[in-house]
Specification:
Mean pLDDT: 85
Number of helices: 5
Radius of gyration: 15 Å
Helix content: over 70%
Distance between the termini: 19 Å
Oligomer: single chain
Length: 119
């Protein structure tokens, strides 16, 4: 359980998502997409830096964003054969994203219980 509540592991999982989306911004979406991705990266970095209750609040913001796109994730996995852009990659991306959401939620509760000064 310690693995799931470690903010470093949540930071790494979220960082993988942010780096993937930076690639998507350059390869597919365009640089405007970075206006969404970079603030999420800053929130995640801030959560790792501050830890504790402040880190929990900072990690909560991108997690709420992830939860808002949950219906899109399930739609992507049910229609994976129809989307030729992503294809089989959705079977890797969606479970990893869901794992990251669960990891974030457990980490948020764990960090909220800690003192903000304990690093």
């Amino acid at each position: 359980m310690n693995f799931l509540s470690n903010i470093r592991n949540a930071f790494i999982a979220n960082l993988v998502i942010v780096i993937f989306h930076i690639y998507i911004a350059f390869a597919v979406e365009g640089l405007d997409f970075l206006l969404i991705v970079l603030p999420v990266g800053l929130l995640i970095t801030g959560a790792y830096y501050f830890k504790g209750k402040i880190g929990a609040v900072l990690l909560t913001i991108p997690t709420i964003g992830y939860l808002l796109i949950l219906p899109d994730l399930f739609e992507a996995i049910t229609n994976a054969g129809e989307d030729t852009d992503i294809g089989w990659g959705v079977y890797i991306l969606v479970p990893f994203w869901l794992f990251t959401i669960i990891l974030n939620i457990i980490t948020i509760f764990s960090e909220a219980k800690k003192n903000s000064k304990s690093k």
